[in-house]
Write a structure and sequence with these properties.
There is one protein chain. With 108 residues, the protein is mainly α. It has one domain: Cytochrome c-like domain (Cytochrome Bc1 Complex, Chain D, domain 2). Helices cover 56% and strands 0% of the residues. Helix 4 crosses helix 6. It binds heme C.
């Protein structure tokens, strides 16, 4: 009984996370990018490029450049080398949709 209750509790606690991850396509995968690029890709600190609100296909092309070592940046390579094409499309779609939702005037 105690075991069943803790399972139920764990399932209930996990529910809001599961729902949140589905709010925008790619949001869960994009989480690891937000530390540098900001929650909506509109940068979290000066010096990080804003990537939000740009066409997804443009972002995919850039991500492929990093992944295939045509453009070098250690932070980007470290993440992208572990992602497949579908992952790149998902995070690109997320930042394309999410961008512009956050006012970044304070960073300029
Ligand atoms: C540790 C910090 C860090 C993380 C995490 C990170 N980036 Fe970046 N990203 C950077 C920096 C710094 C640059 C600029 C590098 C350069 O000049 O090539 C950059 C560049 C980019 C660019 C090119 C922007 C432009 O205008 O040319 C895109 C797109 C991008 N990142 C997307 C992502 C995505 C998607 C993720 C998650 C999978 C991610 N980044 C994770 C730091 C980070």
């Amino acid at each position: 009984m105690k075991h069943t209750l803790s399972l139920l509790l764990a399932a209930l606690l996990a529910l809001p996370l599961a729902v949140r991850a589905d709010q925008l396509p790619g949001e869960a995968k994009a989480f690891k990018c937000t530390g540098c690029h900001g929650p909506a890709g509109m940068k979290s600190a000066p010096g990080q490029p804003a990537i939000g609100g740009r066409p997804a296909e443009d972002l995919v092309a850039i991500l492929l450049d990093y992944q295939r070592l045509r453009r070098i940046n250690p932070a980007m390579q470290a993440l992208l080398l572990g992602m497949d094409d579908a992952d790149l499309e998902d995070v690109a779609e997320f930042f394309s949709l999410a961008g512009g939702a956050v006012d970044t005037a304070y960073l300029r």
